[in-house]
């Protein structure tokens, strides 16, 4: 049954197994865009990435990943421009010399568990007084390792919102809407409250992913308030 793929109680880390168990890992930013383009109904991403490359530095966070996507974002999107970036993963998946090279390009990996409040505090400490222009997460089966209840999502979305710059963007893979609703996550009312506040978002309730067709949802949220573009959402949720 689909619900069993997104356990109510998250799977816990098996330290000996973890490094190799993921079928999708070390992806490039281009790989991420294949997914995130699916939720980008208004084709905002090209313009957003152009603006990102003019930041000094661009501040970017990638949750549930090591440095692969950040490394290629730096090379292909920012063309080697100034970057302050943090990936958050159970363990850094790479060699120590790669880690040192990444650091010299402004890319760090925080090893921690996103189920632990200490990890979120470390992310906030890393940001210090800065805000992130882009926060992304394409966890795929990593989503089996975080809870699927509303309280967790509400608290983490609140943190992510506070970490985001005024012109920042959130790109998050989620369990599909069917699972979220089954677990009592008040998705419809959350999305309605974004609309009421004129916060731009797009939500894709489920798509057949490259993870053997397993269904995931996608949320794109831009902190820049927009005053149009919400009326057509009702039919898509
Ligand atoms: C399927 S891989 C996806 C990696 C990357 N985002 C990509 O698309 O290539 C899932 C990743 O999530 C990480 N992960 C899973 N649960 C986590 C947790 N609770 N805290 C931190 N990282 C976690 C795993 O270590 C793994 O690197």
Would you give an account of this structure?
34% of the residues lie in helices and 24% in strands. With 237 residues, it is an alpha/beta fold. It has a domain at 27-174: 3-Layer(aba) Sandwich (Rossmann fold), CATH 3.40.50. It has a seven-stranded mixed beta sheet with strand order 3-2-1-4-5-7-6, sandwiched between helices. Helix 2 crosses helix 4. The longest helix has 14 residues, at 150-163. It is globular. Bound molecules: S-adenosylmethionine.
What does the secondary structure layout of this molecule look like, with pairings?
Blueprint: H1 18-21, H2 29-36, H3 45-52, E1 58-63, H4 68-77, E2 83-89, H5 96-104, E3 107-111, H6 117-127, E4 132-137, H7 150-163, E5 164-174, H8 177-182, H9 187-196, E6 199-208, E7 215-225
Parallel strand pairs: 1-2, 1-4, 2-3, 4-5
Antiparallel strand pairs: 5-7, 6-7
Q: How much beta, percentage-wise?
A: 15-25%
Task: Kindly report the average pLDDT value.
Answer: 89
Q: Note the total helix count.
A: 9
Q: Which stretches are low in confidence, meaning pLDDT under 50 for 5 or more residues running? A: 227-237
Backbone shape: globular
Decide which structural class fits the backbone.
Answer: alpha/beta
What is the CATH topology assignment of the domain at 27-174? Rossmann fold
Helical proportion, percent range: 25-40%
Could you spell the SSE succession in H and E letters? HHHEHEHEHEHEHHEE
Small ligands present: S-adenosylmethionine
Rg, alpha carbons: 17 Å
Number of E-state strands:
7
CATH architecture of the domain at 27-174: 3-Layer(aba) Sandwich
Biggest sheet overview: 7 strands, mixed
């Amino acid at each position: 049954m689909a619900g069993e793929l997104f356990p109510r109680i998250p799977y816990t880390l098996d330290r000996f197994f973890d490094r190799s168990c993921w079928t999708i890992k070390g992806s490039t930013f281009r790989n991420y865009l294949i997914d995130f383009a699916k939720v980008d109904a208004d084709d905002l991403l090209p313009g957003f990435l152009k603006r990102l490359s003019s930041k000094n530095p661009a501040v970017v966070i990638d949750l549930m990943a090591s440095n692969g996507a950040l490394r290629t974002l730096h090379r292909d999107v920012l063309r080697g421009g100034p970057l302050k970036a943090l990936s958050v993963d159970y363990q850094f998946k790479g060699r120590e010399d790669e880690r040192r090279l990444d650091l010299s390009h402004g890319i760090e990996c925080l090893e921690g568990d996103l189920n632990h409040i200490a990890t979120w505090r470390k992310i906030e400490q890393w940001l210090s007084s800065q805000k992130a222009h882009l926060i992304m997460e394409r966890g795929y089966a990593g989503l089996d390792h975080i809870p699927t209840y509303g309280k967790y999502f509400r608290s983490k979305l609140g943190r992510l919102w506070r970490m985001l710059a005024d012109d920042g963007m959130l790109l998050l893979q989620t369990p599909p809407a069917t699972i979220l609703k089954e677990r009592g996550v008040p998705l419809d009312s959350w999305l309605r409250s974004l609309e009421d506040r004129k916060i731009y978002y797009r939500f894709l309730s489920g798509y057949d992913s490259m993870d053997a067709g397993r269904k995931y949802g996608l949320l794109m949220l831009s902190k820049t308030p927009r005053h149009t573009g919400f009326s057509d959402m009702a039919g898509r949720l």
